[in-house]
Design brief:
single chain; 300 residues; mainly beta; five-stranded antiparallel sheet; four-stranded antiparallel sheet; extended
């Protein structure tokens, strides 16, 4: 005998025997003498294949009275997007900014809100390159010192003409930055008879200028007034010819190197040659090649 199993209602199974056909027909309401129904396949064979679990779709709201129902947008096959009462598609929830929760940082202006947990964050644009830092405000530069007043025509203490030349008295003369012993020493001269130019006077102090243009203050006791010396101006490998007469064609009596110090004997105004003495040798040298005489000075 063949046995069949079928489900009725909530799953109550009845086992039918092949020999009791009349009982089955009476239970199912079939008239007696009718042929038995064909056997049904098992439920496991006729069940539809299971569908993949999908997230619950929002239920579309019915259209308001007097408005035509609009078909859902075909963004995805078989799904419909929720619509508003006016029939427009509502934006997705991920695009709507959420108010910041207590204790969470507030998104800065111009920054996209964070996506909800479990959702894919929206793609961000590359941040704009940072603006170059503003140029630092330059500190106010100290004002340059005011230019020194012109050299007075005469000294305020001796009433002698300025500028004028005098030699140093010793081989150890301190050049200070101010007219007092309290000022620091800026330079120290170690050449006796070195000619310097006096350009100012202040009590017992004299402001001088040397051949290199360095200026400072020395005490008047370190100078020898009334005596004149000269210094051969520095030149690059050239020597100054001392001639027997004030003539460029006169015989050469000596050749003086740069830095040689000698005695200045005379130098008339308006003339190019000056009479000098170095040791026991006397001669004439051009005015433009020595330091210790003014261009228009008359020394006799």
């Amino acid at each position: 005998m063949r046995r069949w199993r079928m489900r009725i209602g909530a799953g109550v199974g009845l086992t039918l025997l092949a020999g009791s056909v009349a009982v089955a027909q009476s239970l199912l309401g079939a008239p007696p003498g009718s042929p038995p129904p064909p056997p049904r396949p098992p439920a496991a064979e006729t069940a539809a294949p299971p569908r993949p679990p999908t997230s619950p779709q929002p239920t579309a709201r019915p259209p308001a009275q007097g408005q035509a129902q609009q078909p859902p947008r075909a963004s995805q096959p078989g799904t419909a997007r929720p619509t508003t009462q006016q029939g427009q598609a509502a934006p997705p929830r991920s695009a709507q900014p959420r108010p910041p929760q207590p204790g969470q940082p507030r998104p800065a202006a111009g920054q996209a809100p964070r996506a909800a947990q479990g959702q894919q964050p929206a793609q961000r644009r590359p941040a704009a390159p940072p603006a170059p830092p503003a140029a630092a405000s330059t500190a106010p530069q100290p004002e340059p010192p005011p230019p020194e007043p012109p050299i007075p025509p005469r000294g305020s203490v001796t009433n002698l003409p300025l500028p004028r030349f005098v030699p140093l008295r010793s081989d150890r003369v301190n050049l200070r930055v101010g007219p007092d012993m309290r000022f620091p020493v800026e330079w120290r001269y170690e050449r006796r008879d070195l000619p310097v130019m006096i350009i100012r006077e202040h009590e017992q102090w004299r402001r001088i200028r040397d051949v290199d243009g360095t200026e400072g203050w020395v005490h008047q006791s370190n100078l020898v007034p009334g005596r004149r010396t000269f210094l051969v101006r520095p030149t690059e490998g050239q020597e100054v010819a001392m001639r027997r007469r004030a003539d460029p064609q006169a015989p050469v009596v000596a050749r003086l190197r740069a830095g040689v110090i000698g005695r200045l004997r005379s130098c008339p105004a308006g003339q190019e040659w000056c009479e000098v003495q170095v040791g026991d040798t006397r001669g004439f040298v051009p005015r433009s090649q020595i330091f210790g005489i003014l261009p228009d000075e008359d020394l006799r």
